[in-house]
């Protein structure tokens, strides 16, 4: 639910957004260059017509901060949300599966998408405490969460709303401790290899044991390094499928899967649907 393209699970592929552009408002702003290692984007989102909208986010690699100043969302990880699973201002750590987000035509919010390292610094808690959970912002930020919601609701201009959130995010990041160097190196190695880097090789490069690498990821990322690498590889598969039009079997081999069946199992685990169904839905 925290793709770099927007709100929890807001993807730009056909079928995930309300079909008529007049149904919603979307504004996106990149972070200042000095904060690109911590923040991926700032996004404003609002619905302009009544209805029931469902968004599905597959194993996102970003950690979202959502500040809603209108209606709530109903959200669940790995399944359809129940009516009482309502969230307005919240975050959620990394989750190796699909998140399902329902809204009902009156939602308006600001979303900040953090890198895992940025989230660790901004929230100031071990990331395993946020992983695979929906966490109300009050539990982490205290009165600041309520203050933000009220201030954004009272401000009518979307650019000023984004500016309010930006200033608070940047101030907290500047006050936070520096990112863990070894975790940053490991994340970069996984990203540049599209998830194919060996955990043993990364541990050797960092001069640590694999056990220490796992503990480090648990604390600073929220999930195991191997799981994170598999998620990166899954997103690489989707990127190649969207941009190249190549056969899924060829993409599976390029991405390091033993065969297409192996890739399909990962695809189902992370997205909740088969590659063929996903391709039909987004084409």
Automatic annotation (TrEMBL):
Coiled coil: none annotated. InterPro entries: AraC_XylS_family_regulators, Homeodomain-like_sf, HTH_AraC. SUPFAM superfamilies: Homeodomain-like (SSF46689). Residues 180-281 form the HTH araC/xylS-type domain. PROSITE patterns: HTH_ARAC_FAMILY_2 (PS01124). Transmembrane segments: none annotated. Gene3D superfamilies: Homeodomain-like. Keywords: DNA-binding, Transcription, Transcription regulation. GO terms for molecular function: DNA-binding transcription factor activity; sequence-specific DNA binding. This is Transcriptional regulator. It comes from Nitratireductor aquibiodomus RA22.
């Amino acid at each position: 639910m925290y793709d770099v393209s927007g709100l929890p699970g807001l993807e730009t592929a056909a079928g995930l957004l309300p079909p008529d552009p007049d149904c919603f408002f979307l504004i996106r702003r990149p972070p200042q260059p000095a904060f690109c290692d911590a923040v991926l984007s700032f996004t404003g989102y609002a619905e302009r017509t009544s209805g029931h909208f469902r968004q599905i986010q597959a194993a996102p690699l970003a950690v979202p901060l959502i500040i809603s100043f209108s209606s709530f969302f109903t959200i669940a990880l790995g399944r359809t949300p129940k009516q009482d699973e309502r969230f307005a201002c919240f975050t959620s750590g990394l989750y190796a599966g699909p998140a399902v987000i329902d809204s009902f035509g009156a939602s308006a919010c600001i979303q900040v998408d953090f890198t895992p390292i940025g989230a660790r610094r901004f929230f100031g808690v071990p990331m395993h405490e946020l992983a695979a959970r929906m966490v109300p912002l009050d539990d982490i930020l205290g009165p600041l969460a309520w203050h933000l919601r009220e201030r954004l609701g009272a401000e009518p201009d979307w650019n000023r709303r984004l500016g309010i959130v930006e200033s608070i995010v940047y101030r907290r990041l500047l006050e936070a401790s520096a990112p863990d160097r070894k975790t940053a190196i490991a994340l970069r190695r996984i990203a540049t290899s599209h998830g194919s880097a060996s955990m043993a090789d990364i541990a050797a490069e960092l001069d640590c044991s694999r056990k220490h690498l796992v503990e480090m990821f648990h604390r600073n990322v929220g999930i195991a390094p191997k799981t994170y690498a598999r998620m990166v590889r899954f997103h690489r598969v989707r990127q190649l499928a969207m941009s190249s039009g190549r056969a899924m079997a060829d993409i599976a081999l390029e991405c390091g899967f033993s065969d297409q069946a192996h890739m399909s199992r990962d695809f189902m685990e992370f997205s909740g649907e088969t590659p063929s169904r996903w391709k039909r839905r987004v084409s």
